[in-house]
Every structure is written in structure tokens, then in C-alpha cells.
Write a structure and sequence with these properties.
Helices cover 44% and strands 12% of the residues. With 254 residues, the protein is an alpha/beta fold. The chain has one domain: Glucose-6-phosphate isomerase like protein, domain 1 (Rossmann fold). The chain has a five-stranded parallel sheet. It has a two-stranded antiparallel ribbon with strand order 6-7. It is globular, with a radius of gyration of 19 Å.
Length: 254
């Protein structure tokens, strides 16, 4: 199990690096988002491919709370068929199509009090950059999580000449190698064991818990998605219903 230990060691190193280098930026991101949620506005969340996993992780999710609006564009998120309809080939093509993100944004209503939270490992693909540009044009703050330091010097695919990190008000670096996969395998050119999802999710929960801390200190009631599998917790369903009712009320304007 040497390779398992190698992957685990690299994952621990990244988590430590996040703690050592990103706490200030995580605090800045959390303060922006807390401000939006306190005003009963939204933190909109978007990513492509595996960068949708941190979006699905935060809400709806046990221990998550109302205030995060997942924007999951199906052709850019669901490719578990791998080939055929909505396969990997189409996904790789679509995330590079400039203008697609602008069309996605037409499907929603936004407010200048909202925050756009974007996830992109490399920061160079067009759909994410479209979303960031449109969000800024609509007066929203833009927060980007990704491998920012590792992506420096990479050429954007967007005609604006900017990467997604160039367009952010706050960047949190996931500290993951740009290659993502981290473990060498004998007799093979390509590495195995990607780290970007672990880096994203680590940064997400550090941020979301900080948002919760800020809002609780301000006396703001959070509508938390409870566990409904704990024996003896007779009010879990009621609390879940309350959270979903609050979400339904807020989402009406989006």
C-alpha cells in the first residue's frame, strides 16, 4: 500500500499548506459571503466537471445551511455515461466554448448584494471566465477557488486575455499541483491519484464554517440542514422542513 500512503501524505501536505497560507483569504471570502447571506441574498456557486463536486458538497448537505445557490449546468456536470450522450468528449468541448457562460447567466436573476463563488482548478477555460465576467458586469463580488499559484503563466483560452483568477475580488488557492494527479505509477507516463477535489472541499468547509461563525456572532439565525438519521432526534424533520421552506422563499426571486 505504498502508493496509498504517498497519496495520503500529499493530501496532508496540501491541507497543511492551505492552513499555512490561505487563512487570510478564506476570512475575506467568508466575510463577503456572510454579508450576502445576512441580507437574505445568495452566494451563487458554479463550476464545471469535477469542480461541481464542492458545489454539491455545501448545500443541500447535512451541516450546510441556506444561503448557497448551486448553479449546475447539466452538460457540464453530468458525464458519468463517459461516452455517448453527454460524454467526456462533449464536456471537454463545451467548457471551452466562449459565450456559453453568458447564456447560462441569462437563466437567473441576480442582485448586486449577491456573491458569485467559482471553482476552477486551472482557471483558463471559457465557461467559467464568462460567468466571472458577467457576474462582475452585474455588480456582484466574485470569489474564485482554484490552483492559482500553479496556474500562473498558463495561457487563457478566453478572448478577454484573462484567467478566472484575474477577475476575482478574492482568490483562495487550493495549493494543488496543476497536474492534479499526484502519484507516480511504474511503467506509466501519467500519474494517478488526483487531489483537486480534496483541496476544494477542504477550502469549502473552512470557508463555510467561518461564514457560520461570523453570522452566529452577529446573532443571525441559520437554517441548517440537519441529519435525519440520528436516533431520538424527534425534531429533525421539522428543522429540515424549516430549512427547505426558507430556501423556497429565498429562491423565488432567482
Amino acid at each position: 500500500m505504498q502508493l496509498a500512503k504517498q497519496w495520503l501524505g500529499k493530501a496532508r501536505d496540501i491541507m497543511q499548506k492551505i492552513e499555512d497560507t490561505q487563512m487570510e483569504n478564506i476570512q475575506k471570502a467568508a466575510e463577503l459571503m456572510a454579508g450576502a447571506i445576512e441580507q437574505k441574498r445568495w452566494v451563487h456557486t458554479f463550476g464545471c466537471g469535477h469542480a461541481t463536486l464542492p458545489i454539491e458538497e455545501m448545500y443541500p448537505r447535512i451541516g450546510g445551511f441556506v444561503g448557497f445557490h448551486p448553479m449546475c449546468e447539466l452538460p457540464l456536470t453530468f458525464f458519468t455515461r463517459i461516452v455517448g450522450e453527454m460524454g467526456v468528449h462533449q464536456f471537454v468541448f463545451l467548457e471551452r466554448v466562449e459565450g456559453y457562460g453568458k447564456e447560462i447567466m441569462k437563466g437567473y436573476n441576480f442582485d448586486t448584494r449577491d456573491v458569485m463563488w467559482l471553482f476552477s482548478h486551472s482557471g483558463i477555460n471559457n465557461v467559467n471566465i464568462d460567468i466571472a465576467i458577467e457576474a462582475r458586469n452585474k455588480g456582484m463580488k466574485v470569489v474564485v477557488f482554484g490552483s492559482a499559484a500553479e496556474a500562473k503563466g498558463k495561457t487563457t483560452r478566453h478572448s478577454s486575455g484573462k484567467t478566472i483568477f484575474d477577475l476575482a475580488d478574492v482568490v483562495v488557492d487550493t495549493c494543488v499541483p496543476i497536474q492534479d494527479a499526484a502519484v507516480d505509477l511504474k511503467n506509466h507516463q501519467d500519474k494517478i491519484g488526483p487531489l483537486s477535489t480534496m483541496g476544494f472541499v477542504t477550502c469549502v468547509w473552512m470557508t463555510v464554517t467561518t461564514i457560520a461563525e461570523i453570522l452566529a456572532d452577529r446573532g443571525v439565525k441559520l437554517f441548517i440542514h440537519p441529519s435525519h438519521n440520528v436516533p431520538g432526534d424527534n425534531t429533525a424533520k421539522q428543522r429540515l422542513d424549516e430549512a427547505l421552506a426558507e430556501y423556497k422563499t429565498r429562491i423565488a426571486g432567482v
